[in-house]
Amino acid sequence: MPMAVVSPPAPEVHHGALQTTFIGVEHPISRTTKAAPSGPLPVVHQYRGIKYASVPQRFRQSRMWTTYPTITDATRFGPICPQPQGPFGQTFDESLFSTDPAAAVMADYLDAYKQPFKQNEFECLNLNITVPAYAESLPVMVWLHGGSDRGSGSSWVTDAGAFVRHSVVIGKPVIVVTLNFRLGLFGFAASQALRDDNKAHGEDGVGNYGLKDQRVALEWLQWFIADFGGDPKNVTLMGSGTGAADVVAHYLSAANARGNGPVDIHQSVQGMHGIAAPLFRRAIVQSAILDTNVPSVAEAGSRISKVLSALGIHSSFGPGAHKSIDDLRAVPADILAKFGQVMRVVDDGRWWRSDWREFFKPESKHHGHFLPHHTQPGRLQPLIIGDCAGDALLWSQQASSWNAPAVVRRLKAVCQSMTRSMSLMRAYDISQATDDQEYLEERVLDLIQDARVSWPTECLARAVARHGTGLWRYVFDQESPRACVPHHGVDLAYLFDNVMLPDGVDGMDLDVFPDSFSDDESDFEEMQSHGPKHEVMFKEVDFEARFQASMRPDTLVRSYSHDSTVTSSDVSMTSSASIWSGPSVSQCTYSKVRETMQEKWLAFAYGEKPWLEQEKGGIFVFGPEGETGQRSAHIFAGRRRRELWRQAFEPMGMQMVHKIGMEMSRGPVQHGGGCAAVAFV
Questions:
Q1: Domain topology for 17-232+242-256+291-352
Q2: Could you tell me which residue ranges the Carboxylesterase type B domain spans (predicted)?
């Protein structure tokens, strides 16, 4: 008779402070040989759906949760925030990679992702903890997901099992915590009426409920992560897209500037006192979709009024305003979720440090010298920050809808200055006479990329560097495993290692591919001296030319769209970008970029310098074609349009540039009702 398979006992954490035992699961990565080292496989545990806060009422601040039964089941993911379906019924993850879990994820992972997550605005404040077995006082990395009004911290794309296993393999074990929090209107509605309502309940400020959820989660971790094996004094906060923008919001918050004062604990736990230290030690910002024109409460209120009108709710002011709020609270969650992209972060006079806008201004010039802006003293933690070359592909559909006359008219209208608009159009080679639609689309995408992602990222990076707290800059130009281009979110495939390469992708001769690249020509000469393989490699392949070729519209725009019929199999690189035949991403190049990125992020979590700081001339590159290494500012200027930013953007200022980026990314047609979708991701 065949022997019965004995399952290992479920992992448990006996939590003294919370007086409960959390029952988790052994992560499937513990039983697979995917990217496994030789020898015994490290065991990874996961505790899912742990409630960290409660929501007393819609549009109210959350409260830390500390009451659990004697045994807490942490084997299943918890509910997520109500959210709309994406195009063609896709989830955010599916639209990001133009695929679904069944096609892209290991079979062993699928059990946890077969069914859609439950959606519940009052039970969505939960977190997932992925931890090595036998953890003790390990660094903690907290992940904030992107997606604006979609997505969750329980995504298969950002499941931390493979990442945590690799951390054990290289001797830098960490704990990863992923959060669920309120999104869309549930997380960011704001108006004067809501401010008055919140004040009546003893709550300071208004809106930013999603940010406050995240902050409560960070506070919960300060108190309770130690029993899971984590070090509450060694937390790295990181995120992508709007999640990265949320990281920036915490980074530039008034609470962070004043050193994070005492925490308001709504339910007493024995031995708990106020937290005086920062809630995180360092931060990582990946392709942040930053709204630098954060609305005031009054401006946010006008958006809420349009939502009320669209819902047929009478908008009242003064003493009768509470009736409108009550009516809005009564709207079913699935209906309200459809208006999620109307709202994001608000400036309520409480959340932000007083000088936060200074961090998005270019360096001031005075008599030919760059002078730092005067900013208030405050804690600024070490920061890694960067973007992907194709982040703007999020708006490829909108960009393809423009024609040249419409672009020219819109830019003139937004700039309200012939000099500024002409300078901008010259910089991006846009004119009334541009008749090549593909070329126009490329130029519009370049403008959106720079205005909405790359230039704000650069301005923030330079401002942080001026404070001397440690700033590490990177660019991610490596192609996606499934779409052959460096689209938005592609770095997540490499960091978390959950998106499989398509069938038919073979390995590559490791001896041919260099371990690193350098700006020093002597290094290339030394590599070439090792034999004909290296000579062929460096004589025939121009990586910078290949990078530029991969940014052409016929290889970039069409290969990533929101049309679910477009897959990696529909993409064909042009001859100018096809020096090697076969798939754009080989197993070798994928592994090289994956391991390099993971190891740099883990080194940072351990308080090490991952590479040379930007102020000392260090920029780290990931891709294209597997290239990794530290580069000079000169190389960086070639990868990003830094000179164009200086010529066209700096005279306008961030507020105007952001408005231009928003207008271009909306497309030429504005939807009715005043609630046009604003694409935050």
A1: Rossmann fold (3.40.50)
A2: 43-502
